[in-house]
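Exam revision sheet. Question 4 asks you to relate a sequence to its structure. Input first:
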Amino acid sequence: MSTTAPDPARPALWTPGDWNAFFGFGTNILVNLLVLTGLLRFVLKMPDDLVFGRILPATGLMLFLSTAYYAALAWRLARKTGRSDVCALPSGIRCRTCSSSSSS
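Answer key, structure tokens:
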């Protein structure tokens, strides 16, 4: 059995503990999007074509781009430092921000 050290120039993209973060973060995003949709439609009375045609697609694009950006930054930092315990900063909408901005 050969054991080789991980190559610091090529950090691991996925480790076993990442499944927990994937489903936890995914569930958090889903709940936040449902809360945001409810606040926009029923509290602020925004029309459905605006919520589903503009706001939610832009939110999805923002979530994808920000996650890809932070993942690229973490990848570069891991390669630069040779560390294998670098992770990306989660980004996205927060329920606290949604509810406070919709109630003001």
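Marking note for examiners. Residues 19-103 form one domain.
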